[in-house]
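Quick entry, no commentary yet.
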Amino acid sequence: MIEHSIQLAPSILASDFAHLADQVERATAGGASVIHVDIMDGHFVPNLTLGPPVVKSLRRATRLPLDCHLMIENPDQYIAEFADAGADWISVHQEACRHLNRTLNLIKQHECRAGVVINPATPVETLSEVLDIVDYVLVMSVNPGFGGQKFIPGTLHKMRKLAEIRADRGYRYRIEVDGGVGMDTVAEVVRAGAEILVAGNAVFGKGDAKVNAQTLLEAARSASLQRV
């Protein structure tokens, strides 16, 4: 049996960029073990965020893995650049990749963990031909583009389905969730099968990021004991 421990991946999209290094340090002190970086191009999603230079700066500020979520068109064009900037994990959207198998293998060629992402309206079944090669699957529980959105409960069945497929076929991918993860939703996403929890406002929104991270992780680990 594969052990799938809970990991917290704070999303810097919700952080104060003027104090980014300090906020990442506080979240790390609270138990975060991955840093989630949202890359948006204003085309695939209706927002524009950051690029490789910020990733390169962040790389100098933390030893934690950088989980770069590419919400962009033509991701193949930028994978090498993000890998060179210091990304450790790179995930791409099923909806953005014309040749998904090729794109995932390109990520691996740059010695990064390869992840695939699905939007709320995309069925898990669209991933059937790549689940044997991905390192993680990211389930979007909001429509991508903006932080602070309300969690979509209808996405929970995807986490359950992914956990079932993994158990049935002996695959090794991890299950990540992004969107609306907070104290009011963390238990249900963990019980549904999520193991890597992306949280932005819940960590960086109000108060101390260290305390927020600790509180969220404690709730998630408690919920993991209730999995059937």
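second:
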Amino acid sequence: MQAYRIVEWGRPPEFADVPKPVAGPGEVVLQMKGAGLCRSDLDMMEGAPYSDWLKAGYTLGHENAGVVHELGQGVTDLAEGDAVVVHHMQVCGHCDFCLNGTEQSCTTNSVGPLPITRGCGIDGGLAPYLVVPRKELLAIGTTDPVSVAPLTDAGVTAYRAVKSVQERLSPGSHVLVIGIGGLGSFAVQFLKLLTGATIIAMDVGEGRLRHARDLGAHHTLLSGPRAVEEIMDVTRGRGCEAIIDFVGTDGTLEAAAGVSRPQGRIVLVGMELGTLKVGWGSMATSCEFAISLGSKRADLREVCELAARGLLRIDVERFSFADVETAYQNLREGKLSGRAVITFES
């Protein structure tokens, strides 16, 4: 079968012939229905920093959904044709983090600071078939797999970041979301659903800010030299109990620190490799700083349940597998009207 792969660092990804996978014990082969594309894929295509940690020679695609095609020995709770989504992170189940309920930090399946995930170090879903361990799958009933494919990374990563600040966000509090792209758009929705906080959205584009307002943001503002002052005006000088940065440049991190509040929390998700100087006077005293990466399987279950109940807006732009390079080019040039999802013929 054909798969879209990173064959060698320094070369663009390409279609390559690979064997159709076979289910081993405890595994399931999926017939792919939808594979979401992500901006981190574009970073992988550029190489660094991914090339510093990972070996080339894997199929892209880390937002995956499909139907069961083949069951391996010992898998008895699924049937052929069941619709499923794939939790993209690998978990061993026996390291300290897995045992303590923070499986997104599993150390068994990581290289340096980066977890090895579907489409990022091991084969992902940009191919007609994908084999995964049963424990990575979640059945979704009658939900359309293509429509929820973006939830398996963009959605669930944003959800995990929101959950990490949820306890700080009582009515009357303020939360700042920096970057209203694919992840930030989901974060605004989760904050609206799960908290009583006033939501402030910040981005460089007016169109994205309009989108944030449509999704439930209470205040929106453009990034720039007056952003911190404007946020402090909105919060009446209090600052924000939580800031989630989906960009991660020096500038956005500096702004996050500038509006931080005592006992608040700054959560970095974006991977633009910016840095923040932390010390006395650089951010509010007693404010925490954390880097959030990935999600738990329970997070994916909860996000899919919200989608099944019709509580999430998931904007999807569909492309055929043959047009994957066009889809990536549209993503690169900012031409997409929603999350790009590659679809596969039956």
